[in-house]
């Protein structure tokens, strides 16, 4: 839960993962960043198990594009990076769940993958 500026109300956050402790979220307009990304990355972000933070993805895609000199290589690199980040986030959430409950995360215990459309 996140305390609101008023002392008599509390905002309940929907994201209860370990992400805030793992990553830095860059400020910016998420919708504009999402729209500026190539279609394949937008599709992958849409299917991400968690909010993939479009501003972060756009910053990274632009950095990969500068480094590789190719939009296509930058796109492939970012898609792999998103897969790696998602796996790390799932593992961290499963570990926190086990610590809090003493039980394995049912999704992880079942050994299932992230359900994606298509």
Describe this structure in words.
The chain is mostly helical. Helix content is 59%, strand content 3%. The protein has helices spanning 19-22, 30-36, 39-47, 54-68, 71-101, 106-109; strands spanning 2-3, 10-11. Strands 1-2 form a two-stranded antiparallel sheet. The chain is elongated.
Topology as a string of helices (H) and strands (E): EEHHHHHH
Secondary structure: helix percent: 55-70%
Q: How many E strands?
A: 2
As residue ranges, the low-confidence spans are 1-7
Calculate Rg over CA atoms. 17 Å
User: Span between N and C termini?
Assistant: 34 Å
- Sheet with most strands: 2 strands, antiparallel
Strand content: under 5%
Strand order of the largest sheet: 1-2
Mean of residue pLDDT? 84
The number of helices is 6
Structural class category: mainly alpha
**C-alpha geometry:** elongated
Write a concise synopsis of the structure shown.
59% of the residues lie in helices and 3% in strands. The protein is mostly helical.
SSE layout:
Layout: E1 2-3, E2 10-11, H1 19-22, H2 30-36, H3 39-47, H4 54-68, H5 71-101, H6 106-109
Antiparallel strand pairs: 1-2
Top keywords for this entry?
single chain, 118 residues, mainly alpha, 6 helices, disordered N terminus
């Amino acid at each position: 839960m996140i305390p609101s500026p008023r002392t008599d109300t509390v905002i309940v956050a929907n994201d209860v993962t370990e992400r805030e402790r793992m990553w830095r979220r860059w400020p910016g307009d998420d919708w504009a960043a999402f729209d500026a990304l190539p279609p394949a990355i937008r599709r992958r972000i849409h299917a991400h198990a968690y909010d993939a933070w479009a501003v972060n993805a756009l910053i990274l895609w632009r950095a990969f594009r500068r480094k590789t000199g190719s939009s296509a290589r930058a796109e492939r690199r970012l898609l792999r990076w998103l897969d790696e980040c998602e796996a790390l986030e799932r593992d961290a959430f499963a570990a926190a769940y086990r610590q809090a409950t003493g039980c394995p995360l049912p999704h992880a215990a079942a050994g299932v993958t992230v359900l994606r459309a298509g």
